[in-house]
Amino acid sequence: MVQTLFKSVGVIMNKNENSFLDPKTLIAVVLVAGLWFGWQSYLTKKYPQANVVKSQSTETTPTAGQLVPSKNSEAVNTMKQGTGTTVLIAATTDEKKQIVSSPEGNFEISSYGMGIKNLKLIKYTRRDQSHIEFAKGLEQGLFELHLLDDPHPINFHIEPAGENTFIGTAQVGNMKISRTLVYTPETFSFKNTVSILGADASFKGLSIIIPEKIETSASSGSFLAGNVEHQEFLISHDGNKVDSTNVTSSKEGIDKTQGLVSILSVSSQYFASAVIDKSEIAPEAHLLAKTGETFFQGILSYKISSIKEKMDFTFVAYSGPKSHEILEKADPDLGGIIDLGFFGVIGRILLVILKWFNSFLGNWGYSIIALTLLVRALVMPFNVASYKSMKKMQKIQPMMQAVRERYKDDPATQQKETMALMKSEKVNPLGGCLPMLLQMPIFFALFRTLGQSIDLYQAPFIWWIHDLSMKDPYYVLPALMGITLFIQQKITPSTMDPQQAKVMQFMPIMFTFFMISLPSGLTLYTFISTLFGILQQRFFMRDRHLVVKAREAKA
Q1: Confidence (pTM)
Q2: Rounded Cα–Cα distance for residues 101 and 121 (Å)
Q3: Which of 117, 119, 191, 504 lies at a C-alpha separation of 20 to 30 Å from 548?
Q4: In Å, what is the CA distance from 43 to each residue of 2, 51, 166?
Q5: Which of the 8 DSSP states describes residue 159?
Q6: H/E/C letters for each residue in 439-500?
Q7: What does the alpha-carbon distance between residue 382 and residue 140 come to, in Å, rounded to a whole number?
């Protein structure tokens, strides 16, 4: 549109080359200028984020425990989606920060809502060996406190009150707000108590913000690996219901509200920031992730129905690794933010067993192999029954072939006669499937365990496998697994007709491709399990005195 206008001006000026002050030229210039400024005004209203000026970081280098002013006194960070509006920073006073250092991590406590900023874990790194940092580069602080429906954070005056204990006080009209924050470095947790005195009818409640930067490296994974390298919201509500929302795979953004919430977590694959409520009032969670934004956030809101002279709100905040031991030390209920899916109980048992093996093997890969052998030993009785069924099936293979030949032009009758034959010979066509069905829950539980627990994050195995939570970089394990699956399929008797058998020959190839992007630890488990199954089958199926004689099919 703008190019068309400039071309029009050029045409007008070409017709009036003798005088730039020609009336037509001036009119054209005024029209273009008016349309230009009108267009810019429209864009400013439609895309306010494009015109937000990012604040400059403070150049002051404070020492531990020192309160320093920040130069970003007018910082603004806004995001709107549907009917929900995020809490933003639009402070009118200078920000001050309390520096906290420990062997586990470093961070700053901001006077803006007593939010946690620049939180860096010392003992944990990303795959590129950089330190894990939470809400990096965001104006909002973790667990920042706001009055409900107020876009400004509460501006606190913070004073140390003992080791890793800080008290913030704020005066909002006639209302006095105090917040006590106690940091426990060993559990990466913050115990919080917020007290309100002198509240009037204008007080609607409080909001706690959990922002996080969107990781551009996150991926929704392969066909079977929907949770690989992802970010998500997780809420526990209505007693014991747990819902997770994958932010990485969302195509249209997220704008959800859920009441009666006990836990709100904003997490990546192996690390999380979470708030667990300990108050008398059940809060509400608002989940926001807008397409095209660089950050997403969860908001936990306490809505007040009646005003009291003194009101207290208590909660525990956490920012750290997804480790069951650490989370449960921080709070017994906090381990629920590790979502192991439908087979979560099995996943937790597997993790305990893996840790026990690792305690004396000293290698998570060897521990996975030991777990595989243990699982195979546990299903051994079912395998023996399966092999007996296979032996019977071997004996009647010539008879089944005769039935196929006799009724090759009548598939329905062929199927009926085949089932009748197996019934008369007491052969169970599903006998060989039971051990596999018993192992499927273990497979899926192990997948979720490998994809959620920090214990296997960056755990090396041998040679080229440097991280069991990542795919095999050279695809050696998937290839070996595919070969063993093919061999197992070839030596296993089947009741399928030749056409079905040919189709099933492609299954090992398909499954190999499905496993390419899955964690190498899971591929290792499948490969060892299949290899052991082949050896086990060869041992139980051998019978040196057995001579399989073809029987003539009954007329």
Answers
A1: 0.72
A2: 10
A3: 504
A4: 14, 9, 44
A5: E
A6: HHHHHHHHHHHHHHCHHHCCCCCCCCCCCCCCCCCCCHHHHHHHHHHHHHHHHCCCCCCHHH
A7: 57
Q: How far apart are CA 503 and CA 181, in angstroms?
A: 63
> Per residue in 321-374, pLDDT tens?
999 899 999 999 998 888 887 888 888 899 899 999 999 999 999 999 999 999
CA 108, CA 119: separation in Å to the nearest integer?
A: 7
Residues 265, 152: Cα–Cα separation, whole Å: 23
d(CA 332, CA 190): 14
DSSP state of 128: T
Q: What digits encode the pLDDT tens for the residues 477-496?
A: 999 999 999 898 887 766 56
Distance of alpha carbon 45 from alpha carbon 472, whole angstroms: 49
Helix, strand counts (H, E) of the chain: 13, 21
Report, in angstroms and rounded to the nearest whole number, the Rg of the chain calculated over CA atoms: 33
Residue type, 502: K
Q: Where are the alpha helices (DSSP H) in 182-252?
A: none
| Averaged confidence pLDDT in the chain | 78
Q: What is the pLDDT of residues 204-243, one digit of tens each?
A: 999 999 999 988 755 444 444 444 578 999 999 987 788 9
